[in-house]
Design a protein that fits this description.
Blueprint: E1 5-7, E2 16-21, H1 23-33, H2 38-41, H3 43-47, H4 58-73, E3 82-87, E4 95-103, E5 110-116, E6 122-129
Antiparallel strand pairs: 1-2, 2-4, 3-6, 4-5, 5-6
């Protein structure tokens, strides 16, 4: 599904991870999840919708927040963590999305998180609460 690129490291911020969401990544995600909604996999159908083209599965981009958390705190970091998000705009085929977060509280357990497209526009926003 393509290479994930990580940059930066500071626990006041989650390590930023990026991925280009190309057609093969979307197709593979559809196969893994058995979600072949034509808005994701059929360019002719998708062109006739209000989206005017293929959009990626929301969870494909959301997964980058979990990758960012693991890159910052290690493989067990997601255990007990809670993520609350809002999908702000669709991720289009061939968008490059980047996820990360910034600490929100002095106790270091709450982060504001975001997934942004290559134009710096948020596609997913929310909060991540680390487990105990």
């Amino acid at each position: 599904m393509g290479e994930v690129i990580m940059s930066g490291f500071d626990r006041t911020e989650l390590v930023r991870v990026s991925k280009t969401i190309d057609r093969p990544a979307i197709r593979l995600y559809a196969e893994i999840t058995d979600d072949f909604n034509p808005i994701h996999v059929d360019p002719d159908f998708a062109a006739t919708t209000p989206m005017r083209g293929i959009i990626a599965h929301g969870m494909l981009s959301l997964n980058l927040i979990w990758q960012s958390l693991r890159a910052t705190y290690g493989p067990g970091a997601a255990q007990g963590a809670r993520l609350e998000v809002r999908f702000v705009r669709p991720v289009r085929e061939n968008d490059t999305v980047s996820a990360g977060g910034r600490i929100k509280d002095a106790g270091g357990r709450l982060y504001d998180v975001v997934v942004e497209n290559q134009n710096g526009e948020p596609v997913i926003t929310g909060t991540l609460t680390l487990g105990a």
